[in-house]
């Protein structure tokens, strides 16, 4: 359940299927903003919860997300997803090909993004990601 909430927070829309790009060749630079390539982390901690998110965007057009979530009521949970990504005019589109939540597989999401130096902001997300 929290995984779906994170999808809404992180990537803010819907999802749909696409083929996988398993090679190590660099993706088309006209559809893959090199400013996103790398690993990004965000951390949030409250009195009764904590969230640690790591997102990696690879130069070959693949991505992965790992989220570790803890709250006082339900304990710890790890959520993962991976797939492919593209960009166009500061819109990041991800296609989920694997996920720890089977309901996420085959989904596509598009959200506005901004990279400012070592900071990444996704849509209306409250979390700010820092380049690792």
What does this entry show, briefly?
By secondary structure, the chain is mainly beta. Helices cover 8% and strands 50% of the residues.
Layout of secondary structure:
Layout: H1 2-11, E1 38-45, E2 49-57, E3 62-71, E4 75-88, E5 91-99, E6 108-116, E7 119-122, E8 129-131
Antiparallel strand pairs: 1-2, 1-8, 2-3, 3-4, 4-5, 5-6, 6-7, 7-8
Can you walk me through this structure?
This protein is mostly beta strands and 132 residues long. It has a single domain, classed as Lipocalin (Beta Barrel), CATH 2.40.128.300. Helices cover 8% and strands 50% of the residues. Strands 1-2-3-4-5-6-7-8 form an 8-stranded antiparallel beta barrel. A hairpin with a 2-residue loop joins strand 6 and strand 7.
Tally of individual domains: 1
Mean pLDDT level: 85
Tell me the strand percentage band.
over 45%
Distance between the termini: 27 Å
Give the count of helical stretches: 1
Low-confidence parts lasting 5 or more residues at pLDDT below 50?
1-22
What CATH architecture label applies? Beta Barrel
Order of helices and strands: HEEEEEEEE
Radius of gyration in whole Å, from Cα? 14 Å
């Amino acid at each position: 359940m929290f995984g779906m909430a994170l999808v809404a927070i992180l990537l803010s829309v819907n999802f749909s299927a696409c083929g996988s790009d398993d090679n190590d060749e660099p993706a088309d630079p006209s559809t893959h903003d090199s400013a996103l390539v790398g690993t990004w982390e965000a951390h949030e901690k409250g009195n009764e919860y904590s969230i640690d998110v790591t997102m990696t965007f690879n130069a070959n057009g693949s991505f992965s997300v790992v989220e570790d979530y803890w709250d006082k009521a339900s304990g710890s949970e790890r959520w993962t997803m991976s797939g492919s990504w593209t960009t166009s005019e500061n819109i990041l589109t991800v296609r989920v090909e694997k996920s720890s939540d089977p309901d996420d597989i085959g989904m596509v999401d598009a959200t506005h993004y901004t990279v400012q130096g070592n900071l990444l902001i996704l849509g209306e997300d409250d979390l700010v990601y820092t380049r690792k």
